[in-house]
């Protein structure tokens, strides 16, 4: 029963939307337009597959992305260079089975080649202890709190130093080797494929 982490496919966006909106109060709801916007713009948008079924997803943005989240803006005002986990959702039947840990191992291996820090938040108003413990086990530390305007949700703002980044930066000077696992992840919408004939 292995977990496969891979780039999302456009035809899976409706399933991603359903996963998100069934996740409960620990995650903000999305609409179809927002999920498609993530697909078009996110630097990292991957899904977990277990036993041939979608088990979760993770969306992330680098610090230069201009992402329009107030939590992202909070980090951007305080830190010059980071990778931001916008959201991670694991299907309720898959929680506690290692999917979240597999995602965090994958996103860290992506981010530590490109950014010195990994940022995320945990909502504090709806039984946050399991999520805080999970993030603490990955060496995240609270660097502040933020109340999200509009929804009035209080979030613990978490940051993790990526200790491999200085070595990668010094060794490769921004020119990573061209291998499958170091290439930037880019998603090509079907509309763009049609217009370019690919």
Helix content: 25-40%
Extract low-pLDDT stretches.
Answer: 188-198
Number of strands: 7
Individual helix count: 7
Q: Give the integer mean of the pLDDT values.
A: 88
Q: What letter string, H or E per element, gives the SSE order?
A: EHHEEHEHEHEEHH
End-to-end CA span: 34 Å
What is the strand arrangement across the widest sheet? 1-2-3-4-5-7-6
CATH topology category name: Aminopeptidase
Structural class call reads: alpha+beta
Describe the model.
The structure is a single chain. This protein has helices at residues 13-21, 32-41, 70-78, 99-111, 129-137, 165-172, 190-196, and strands at residues 3-7, 44-50, 53-62, 83-90, 117-123, 141-148, 153-161. With 198 residues, it is an alpha+beta fold. It has a single domain, classed as Aminopeptidase, CATH 3.40.630. It has a seven-stranded mixed beta sheet with strand order 1-2-3-4-5-7-6, with helices on both faces. The chain is globular and about 45 Å long. The termini are far apart. InterPro entries: Acyl_CoA_acyltransferase, GNAT_dom, UCP028520.
């Amino acid at each position: 029963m292995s977990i496969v982490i891979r780039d999302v496919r456009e035809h899976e966006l409706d399933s991603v939307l359903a996963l998100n909106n069934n996740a409960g109060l620990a995650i903000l709801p999305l609409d179809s337009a927002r999920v498609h916007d993530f697909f078009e713009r996110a630097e990292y948008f991957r899904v977990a597959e277990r036993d041939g079924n979608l088990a979760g997803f993770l969306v992330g943005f680098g610090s230069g992305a201009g992402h329009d989240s107030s939590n992202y803006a909070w980090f951007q005002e305080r830190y010059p260079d980071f990778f931001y986990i916008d959201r991670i959702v694991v299907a309720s039947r898959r929680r506690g089975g290692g999917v979240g840990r597999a995602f965090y191992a994958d996103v860290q291996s992506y981010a530590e080649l490109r950014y010195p820090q990994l940022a995320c938040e945990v909502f504090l108003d709806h039984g946050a202890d399991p999520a805080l413990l999970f993030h603490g086990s990955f060496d995240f530390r609270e660097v502040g709190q933020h109340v999200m305007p509009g929804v009035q949700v209080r979030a613990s703002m978490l940051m993790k130093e990526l200790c491999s980044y200085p070595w990668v930066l010094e060794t490769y000077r921004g020119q990573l080797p061209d291998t499958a696992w170091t290439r930037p992840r880019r998603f090509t919408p079907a509309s763009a494929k049609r217009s370019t004939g690919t």
